[in-house]
Structures are given as structure tokens and as C-alpha cells.
Specification:
By secondary structure, this protein is an alpha/beta fold. The protein is built from six helices and 13 strands. Strand 11, helix 6 and strand 12 form a beta-alpha-beta unit.
């Protein structure tokens, strides 16, 4: 989702996530096969991209990479990124999270005011593991369907409340990235430009950045991930700005904020 708090290759490049059985057996009780090294594949750099996290449709000509919700199926023949809401509850789904919802000093659930989504309480190791278990079940489904990567959204929830910290977010996303790697999936850093040079802590592989043109952050993502940065802008002015600075390096698309489908009133998609 857009960073509204501030209104706010293939090409042979792979990342190997090696985890020994001895290191994780006490925590996860994995078999040696489950703990074996996995090879993941990053999305092709500077490739045509489409953002379809609302509902899937036939990708436009020239698209090589597509992001879709975990409830959808991947697009045949393309590099597919699986979207999961990992740090907030979907509207109306609060009951699925129960005691894992973030509450304030008065015991009231804390909501993201821009999207109306309840925040998840990632402040303790126990809670993070319980939340990861649910999110990772979605990740498993992504892997089973044939997705290539996972996009855990709302990594920057900590930036919208003083009850959460950046360290909480890094610890949480590391659990998700490690699990995705075991399933052979690359893991995207969704927004949160300041994390781009902290990959040793987060375990993340590439970036999906919303509105980096607007906030002069595209270069920050490129510093950490090279050309493996996917940019989504929602306003013409900032789309043009991102294209002027990075069209020869990054994957850049302009979409409508509701991420509508062709034929819907208000649908927007433009590429550099």
C-alpha cells in the first residue's frame, strides 16, 4: 500500500539461502531435507511490471513481472510475486487474529488511519512467531501455486505508531524471509527505504517501492538492491520524476490507487 503516513535475470542472478539442519532443528524441528539450501531467483531487472493485487487480469503486452494477491493464481510464463498483508489485518478480518492485534494503553485496537486496517502486535518474539505461522501458511500456498517471490506488505507499520519499533519490524520480516527462502521464494522489501542497506538483518532480496519518486527515495532502494527495484507511482508528476531519473535501470509503472482492472472506471496503467 502507498506510504501514506508520509502522504507519503532472471539474467542468471540468484541468491542462495543456506540454513543447516543443526541450526534450526531446536526451533523448528525440521527434517534435514526441509533445511537444505534453496536457490531463489530474483525478478529480472528493468523488466515490464504490472501491479494486480486487487484482482488478476491478462497482463498487458511487454509485462514480464506481475504481483498478485496470495488468493490468486500466478500468470503463466511470467515472474510472479505473491502479495501478503503481513503486518496488518485485512478490513473485517480482525477476528482471525484475536490476541495478536495491537492494542493501546486503554485496550483499544490500534488502526492504520489511512487504510482502516488493524495493526498486528509484533512487539514480542512469541507474537512474531505466532503471526509468522499464519502468514507463512499463505507463503506456502504461494509456493505451491508456482509463484516465484513473496511481497509482505505494510513493513512500515511501525512508522505509523509509537507502539512499534523498526527493530520489531526487522525481526518480523526476517522470520518471513527465512521461511520463504526455505520454500524457494525470493522476498521483497515493501517500502521502508531506510531498510534497504540492512539486508543482513532483514534477509530481503529485492524491493517493491511505492512512491519513491514522490519522496526522492528511488536512489535509496537502488543503493541496497541495485537494479532489482520495482517502482509503483500513483500520480503523473512523480511517475514522470521517477522515469526521468531511473527509467534506464528500474522497473517503473504508474497505477491507480485502487489497483483496478482494465475496463473499470478509473483504471490507470502507464509505463516509462
Amino acid at each position: 500500500m502507498p506510504n501514506t503516513h508520509r502522504e507519503r535475470s532472471w539474467k542468471g542472478l540468484t541468491v542462495r539461502a543456506a540454513v543447516t539442519a543443526a541450526a534450526i532443528a531446536p526451533l523448528l524441528a525440521c527434517s534435514a531435507a526441509d533445511a537444505a539450501s534453496q536457490t531463489i531467483t530474483l525478478p529480472p531487472a528493468h523488466a515490464g511490471f504490472d501491479y494486480q493485487i486487487n484482482k488478476p487480469y491478462e497482463p498487458p503486452a511487454g509485462v514480464e513481472v506481475v504481483s498478485r494477491d496470495h488468493t490468486a493464481s500466478p500468470a503463466p510464463g511470467l515472474y510472479n510475486i505473491c502479495y501478503v498483508n503481513a503486518f496488518q489485518a485485512q478490513p473485517g478480518a480482525e477476528g482471525e487474529w484475536k490476541d495478536l492485534l495491537l492494542k493501546d494503553a486503554d485496550g483499544e485496537i490500534v488502526y492504520d488511519g489511512d487504510w482502516g486496517e488493524a495493526m498486528l502486535d509484533i512487539r514480542t518474539d512469541k507474537n512474531r512467531k505466532l503471526i509468522a505461522a499464519k502468514v507463512n501458511a499463505w507463503v506456502d500456498s504461494c509456493a505451491d501455486k508456482g509463484f516465484d517471490a513473496v511481497e509482505p506488505d505494510n513493513l512500515d507499520t511501525f512508522d505509523r505508531t509509537d507502539l512499534l519499533s523498526a527493530d520489531d519490524a526487522k525481526a518480523m520480516v526476517r522470520l518471513l524471509a527465512d521461511h520463504a527462502h526455505q520454500k524457494g521464494l525470493a522476498t521483497a522489501q515493501k517500502n521502508t527505504a531506510e531498510f534497504s542497506t540492512m539486508r543482513d538483518e532483514t534477509g530481503l532480496d529485492f524491493a517493491v517501492a511505492e512512491e519513491c519518486g514522490q519522496w526522492d527515495e528511488c536512489g535509496d532502494y537502488a543503493e541496497g538492491y541495485g537494479d532489482h527495484v520495482i517502482v509503483i507511482e500513483y500520480e503523473q508528476e512523480y511517475f514522470d520524476k521517477a522515469c526521468n531519473g531511473f527509467a534506464d535501470r528500474l522497473s517503473i509503472v504508474m497505477r491507480d490507487r485502487d489497483v483496478l482492472s482494465p475496463g473499470d472506471a478509473g483504471y490507470v496503467r502507464e509505463v516509462c
